Amino acid sequence: MFLSLYSMSARRRKSHIMTTRLDKSLGFGRQEDDYADDHVFSSRVTIPKPFTFVAKDEEMRRRREQLAEDAKKQAILLANSFRACPMRVGPPDPLPEVNSREPVRPQPFSFHCEDRLIKRRSRCQDSTTYNEQSVHQSLVKSPSVLYRPPFLPKPANRTPLQPISPELATSRRAEARQQYDEKVSQRRKSLESKQQKAEEARIEQEKHELVALRARLVHRPNPIRRYRSIRVPSAKPATIPRSPQLSTRKMTHV
User: Fold this and answer.
1) Is the torsion defined by CA of 189, 194, 195, 196 positive or negative?
2) pLDDT in tens, 112-130
3) Strand (E) or helix (H) holding 20
4) What are the Basic and acidic residues biased-composition ranges (predicted)?
5) Distance (Å, whole) CA 23 – CA 29
């Protein structure tokens, strides 16, 4: 009994909670504080708008009528474009000739194994006759060795062999090495002679340059330059020179 009452009270509490949440979602039983916060959640509320399917149904009906009209026009166009072929006059064309085939004639049946068996028997018979003949020949031999003359060796008619000294690879390599060393020495001598000539030419050139430098360093005075005198005519009389009075006798009496 206690459990049943507890379950009923719990259901009532749950239904009360659900009803309260539903009422809140629908706007019933809201407080002034809830209305004060409408500006905060206004962007999250879905605003229902009126809608109708009249325009959509009208557009669908118009399209169906247009399709039916297009199909009717296409059928009329096809019916008008049909032209029957004229009827043939006279007897019809003869049918083509049919080549009749010969009937199948039965032939006696035979296996390939029989032909192979006949060939094999003939080969076996030939091989047996050959073996018999060979055995007979091998068994029956005439003693010809008794009547043949004895074997005597005959000297050969060819010229005697001349010994040839072997050509070793070491000797070839030694000759090649000697030629290479000679070329290297000649090249080294030519390079040394060229270097020596270049050094002698450089020393000789330095000597000539030193002599020329010393010759250029010797001081040679320039000659006195002679200029043509310029006479400027003057309207003033010539200055008469007078010697200054440098005596100090008058100064002593003062």
Assistant:
1) positive
2) 888 888 888 888 888 888 7
3) helix 2-26
4) 170-201
5) 7
